[in-house]
TrEMBL record:
Keywords: DNA-binding, Transcription, Transcription regulation. The lineage of its organism: Bacteria, Bacillati, Actinomycetota, Actinomycetes, Streptosporangiales. SUPFAM superfamilies: Chorismate lyase-like, Winged helix' DNA-binding domain. It comes from the Bacteria. This is GntR family transcriptional regulator. GO terms for biological process: negative regulation of DNA-templated transcription. Residues 1-64 form the HTH gntR-type domain. Pfam families: GntR, UTRA. InterPro entries: Bact_HTH_transcr_reg, Chorismate_lyase_/UTRA_dom_sf, Tscrpt_reg_HTH_GntR, UTRA, WH-like_DNA-bd_sf, WH_DNA-bd_sf.
Length: 240
């Protein structure tokens, strides 16, 4: 416990931003047994604070799980940046397509063209989430020419399309990842995911976003404020 606490202290002081010391280095530095070092590292990995892969140097992740405040629109891009990590996205798809099921959820005709964006979201080059978004093409068409590697969808939506998300609803639930998601997000065997479904509206009350996000539960947390007279997680989501 003392070793783990001191390692966390040094992390918070910015000492391990690039490389985390190996087992032998820690044994020599702290003059403790290898078993003590391994147990400390095991706890840090279980909490999602450190990663270690075969053939790669161990390193800290973003330090603490990202935290989403309930009751307000949030941006995963900004959440990553706020904890001092570097956000990068690998764009897996960005195209124009029709999806009858999604269109109906947005109150549109089944044949309505949609802009579809799928990204693998990284924090300090570590997999964090898979993000899939659908938007009406008549609004979001200009986004087809945007490079989403290091930018926020909401920023680009406002910049190029003149609109932004001001409200809506979302559902957050825990899911067990399947083999494709586990491989894509580099999930340890015991790590679950949060599945986040979001329907977003603009200031004119138009439904302009349907989003499905799978985020590693060891790197993401949900927070709510409360008092002795109020505790509200939000309104019930509409039936899908």
């Amino acid at each position: 416990m003392q070793l783990r606490a001191d390692l966390l202290r040094r992390l918070e002081e910015g000492e391990f931003r690039d490389v985390f010391p190996g087992e032998h280095d820690l044994v020599a530095e702290y003059q403790v047994s290898r078993h003590t070092v391994r147990e400390s590292l095991r706890q840090l990995r279980a909490e999602g604070l450190i990663t270690a892969q075969r053939g790669r140097v161990s390193r800290f992740t973003t330090g603490r799980p990202l935290e989403q405040a309930v009751g307000a629109p949030y941006s995963l891009f900004r959440s990553v940046e706020e904890v001092g990590a570097v956000q990068r996205s690998v764009v897996r798809a960005l195209d124009r397509r029709a999806d009858g099921v999604i269109a109906v959820r947005m109150g549109l005709e089944e044949s309505t063209p949609l802009v579809y964006l799928e990204r693998l979201r990284l924090a300090d080059e570590e997999p964090l989430a898979v993000d899939r978004v659908w938007l009406p093409a008549d609004i979001a068409g200009p986004l087809l020419d945007v490079d989403f590697t290091r930018t926020s969808l909401y920023d680009e939506l406002e910049r190029h399309c003149g609109t932004r998300i001001t409200g809506g609803w979302e559902r957050i639930r825990a899911v067990v990842p399947g083999p494709p998601e586990r491989l894509l997000l580099d999930c340890p065997p015991t790590t679950a995911l949060f599945a986040i479904d979001r329907l977003g509206r603009d200031a004119g009350n138009r439904l302009i976003e349907w989003r499905q996000t799978l985020v590693r539960a060891d790197r993401f947390a949900v927070a709510a404020a409360f008092s002795d007279s109020d505790y509200r997680l939000g309104a019930p989501a509409p039936a899908l």
